[in-house]
Amino acid sequence: MKPDSPFFLGEICSSDRGVNLDTLKNTIILAIEIAREGREGRKVGTIFIVSDSTSVLKQSKCLILDPLKGYPEDEKKITDSDVRETIKELAQLDGAFIVSDQGIVVSACRYINSTSKNIDLPLGLGSRHMAAASITKETNAVAVVVSESSIVRVFDDGALISEIIPELWLLSNYSLHLNGPVSSRTEKELTVLSAGEENSSRQK
């Protein structure tokens, strides 16, 4: 699937998000690839925090020595195929990836300082999702979470705004966490369920 694929991403990556749409699209597609492929024969979970990277860096810290530190920005573009393969390897480690609005993966293996204050997550979503919801509530970033159950979830302004199911057969065993009306799109063995516009727009 190519990063410029037009299909459903326009519904998730709307201009209301206030982030670079190309960067967000490329990040979501990379997350979908990780959810589908896993690594070393096992499922992988990780987080991408997109945009407002300066604020996100201030509210996070590295769990280990940052494996991306010291590399020039032009070697850390999320559109670069070598970088994407590197991210897939690093996704096996704990922590989040911080992606700038310009599509530079500025840091990896970050611990997100999160709080449950004013966050209302559906039951069944754990600490990774709490961190994603919290950081998007505290900053102008959008978070993309890859669950070990092979679901990709997108958070904005502290709320779950979209759930992406890479494989159609998962539908039979999957329970929605989105509240209220949802829209559904299916294309090329990929299903996306999005919150209604009245539930998902960031309040400026």
Give the integer mean of the pLDDT values. 82
Helix content: 25-40%
Q: List low-pLDDT spans.
A: 1-7, 168-173
Q: What percent strand?
A: 15-25%
Give the domain tally. 1
> What's the CATH class, please?
Alpha Beta
User: What is the name of the CATH topology?
Assistant: YojJ-like (1
Treating each run of at least 4 consecutive H or I residues as one helix, how many helices? 6
The CATH superfamily bears the name DNA integrity scanning protein, DisA, N-terminal domain
Distance between the termini: 33 Å
Assembly context of the chains = single chain
What is the strand arrangement across the widest sheet?
A: 2-4-3-1-5-6-7-9-8
Give me the secondary-structure category: alpha+beta
The best one-word shape is globular
Largest sheet entry: 9 strands, mixed
Can you walk me through this structure?
The protein is an alpha+beta fold and 204 residues long. The chain has a 9-stranded mixed β-sheet, with helices on both faces. Strand 3 and strand 4 form a beta hairpin. The chain has a single domain, classed as DNA integrity scanning protein, DisA, N-terminal domain (YojJ-like (1). The protein is globular, with a radius of gyration of 15 Å. It is 26% helix and 24% strand.
